[in-house]
Amino acid sequence: MKKSKHEDISKKLGKLTIKEPYTKTRWLSIRVRAYIDLLRAFTLFAPFVVSMAIIVASLIIRYYQGHPIPENWLLTVGHASTTILIVNAASNALNQATDVEADIISKPYRPIPRKIIRPDEAQSLALVLYLFALLRSTTINALFGFFIFLIMIFTVTYSLPPRMKKYLLINQIWIAVPRGLLGILASWSVFGADNLLETPTPWIIGGVATVFLIGGMSTKDIVDREADRRTGTRTLINTFGIKKTALFSFPFMFFPFIFISIFINRGLLESYLWPLILLAIPSIVILFLMIKPHESETLENVPAWSIMYMQYISFALIFAFLTIFNDILPF
């Protein structure tokens, strides 16, 4: 019988999704694939794309203000975005190194519960990645390095003592701040470090992202609700139930985009950014998907979580698009 295309690719690359079993492959060893899963490549797409979009948007805004575009701007964009990606990779590795007990219950397919990677190996890798990212950040500018350091503080203390992950609601804020506000400010500071305090745009965009993520991060706790309860981590999901959590989280995901109109009317944001308001619509979809969740057969979490991530990426990409092409847009 002729092999399917999926089987042929699987033989070369191994499992195609994180939940499939680890197998020997033609190109990748089991441990290499396990390390890819440890870093959670899908979740790294968001910080990389978001940071790149914000950096380019800030560069264009400075260009409109009369500042020249540096000759090596593209190299700098890639350098800074990759640095933010590395910080998030370190955070993912550290989180899995410290969440073994919970992962055995809710995510036994991960490389540490499967005993392919040891927790101390994952923690050592996280340390190396953190230091590497910090060193890279200082080659861009001091302010960018400062924000990367703050992101590291939040992500390390989320997983290690005082382990903010175990505290109700604080755990969601502790994720949202570095991924939202600090990540966007870090990205903006790559080219706009000299006037960051005088420019309201990155603070507002970062604030909108942070509030959205405070609500959106509830989606990741749905599949972990029983494991979190057993291991002493209090989340909205395992404290109040899925339906109440969805209703509580919805305003955080919906109204930040609506409030963009207020910022525009007060002159704090440019009028061409009004289409960002439309991103409130996917939040309604997330609400319904949260109320009636079902776990994905391929991804680690429920579909609401995936849509939340794509909505966050879309927010940054649309912001960058509107900023770059504002002079030719019909509004």
Write the layout of secondary structure elements.
Blueprint: H1 5-13, H2 30-39, H3 41-64, H4 73-98, H5 100-106, H6 119-138, H7 142-159, H8 170-192, H9 200-216, H10 225-230, H11 236-240, H12 242-258, H13 260-265, H14 281-291, H15 303-324
Question: Which terms summarize this structure?
Answer:
Farnesyl Diphosphate Synthase, mainly alpha, globular, 331 residues, 15 helices
Fold and architecture overview:
It is built from 15 helices and no strands. The protein is an all-alpha fold and 331 residues long. It has a single domain, classed as Farnesyl Diphosphate Synthase (Orthogonal Bundle), CATH 1.10.600. The longest helix is centred in the first third of the chain and has 26 residues.
Contiguous low-pLDDT stretches (5 residues minimum) are: none
SSE series: HHHHHHHHHHHHHHH
Give the class from helix and strand content and strand pairing: mainly alpha
- The percent range for strand residues is under 5%
The CATH topology is Farnesyl Diphosphate Synthase
> Largest sheet at a glance?
none
Q: Whole-number radius of gyration?
A: 20 Å
Number of domains: 1
Shape: globular
> How many beta-strand runs?
0
Average pLDDT, rounded to a whole number, is 92
> If helices are DSSP runs of H or I spanning 4 or more residues, what is the number of helices?
15
Helix coverage percent: 55-70%
Span between termini: 58 Å
The CATH architecture is Orthogonal Bundle
CATH class: Mainly Alpha
Short description:
This protein is mainly α. It is built from 15 helices and no strands.
